Each structure stands twice: as structure tokens, then as C-alpha cells.
């Protein structure tokens, strides 16, 4: 199953690369619709893992996600989830990153198309009945923030 999700991510990356090459990809995030669902009692009873936000707020299929909890200088926006199951989840969206030039308070945010892959569900320490994703992989099909690799692996907090 894991190989299937990576093939899906690579296929999405290839499609996004083609769209970028054709010049139809926008540099600004589209208006996000709220398809985020807090992980309430129904989600806890299911086998679907959650994604924990900065304040340990469990969510399933969030439309936005802050990566830089300390200062908010990197976030995911306009997330559209093509899958979310017991093993992994895949979304497309934008990574909005502050260039911090000449310093972060005066910097400008730039948006980059991104494919998000969540993996490695483990028991959440705060609630052993809930699984949480512990690994996030960002795949940048086109332009990417300065200093970022094409694929960025991010261990998630617990």
C-alpha cells in the first residue's frame, strides 16, 4: 500500500510539473475551502490517524497546517486530500514561506505548489486510543523555497 501512495505522489508531481511547464500554475494559493474536520468522538472511534497541529489539535483532512509553530513563517494552505487512510494520506496545495528578507518581520510570503504525504501512524501519547501521523513528506514539483530540497522529510511532533 505504501508503494501505491508514493506512486500517486510521483504521478501528481509529474502532472504538476507538466502544468508548471505549460505555465498555467498560479503562484498564489487558491482560496481554501474549509474541509478540515476536527477529530471528535467519531474520528477517535475510527481507525483513521490524525494530524496534530501546533497546539496538539487533532485534525483529519485539514485545509491548512502551520509548519513553523514558533513564528508562522511556513504553512501549508489550500490542501486538497486525494486520500486519507489508516496508513498514509496524500494532498496537494501550497507551501507559503516567508523569505525573511531583510528580516522576517519585513519579509514577504511566497507560495509554492506542494504535494504532502503523511506516513507512519503511531499511538498518540496524549490519547492512546488515537493514532497520529508521525512523518510528513513535502514534494515540490516546480519552484521551491530557497534552501529546500525537492523532497523534504519532516518528523512530526507527538
From TrEMBL:
Keywords: Signal. It comes from the Bacteria. Residues 1-30 form the signal peptide. This is Secreted protein.
Amino acid at each position: 500500500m505504501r508503494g501505491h501512495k508514493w506512486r500517486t505522489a510521483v504521478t501528481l508531481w509529474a502532472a504538476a510539473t507538466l502544468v508548471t511547464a505549460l505555465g498555467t500554475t498560479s503562484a498564489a494559493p487558491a482560496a481554501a475551502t474549509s474541509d478540515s474536520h476536527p477529530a471528535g468522538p467519531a474520528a477517535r472511534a475510527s481507525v483513521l490517524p490524525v494530524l496534530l497541529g501546533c497546539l496538539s489539535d487533532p485534525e483529519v483532512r485539514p485545509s491548512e497546517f502551520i509548519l513553523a509553530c514558533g513564528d508562522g513563517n511556513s504553512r501549508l494552505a489550500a490542501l486538497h486530500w486525494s486520500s486519507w487512510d489508516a496508513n498514509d494520506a496524500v494532498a496537494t496545495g501550497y507551501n507559503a514561506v516567508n523569505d525573511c528578507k531583510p528580516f522576517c518581520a519585513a519579509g514577504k510570503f511566497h507560495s509554492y505548489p506542494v504535494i504532502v504525504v503523511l506516513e507512519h501512524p503511531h499511538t498518540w501519547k496524549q490519547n492512546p486510543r488515537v493514532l497520529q501521523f508521525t512523518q510528513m513528506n513535502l514534494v515540490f514539483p516546480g519552484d521551491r523555497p530557497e534552501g529546500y530540497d525537492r523532497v523534504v522529510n519532516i518528523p512530526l511532533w507527538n
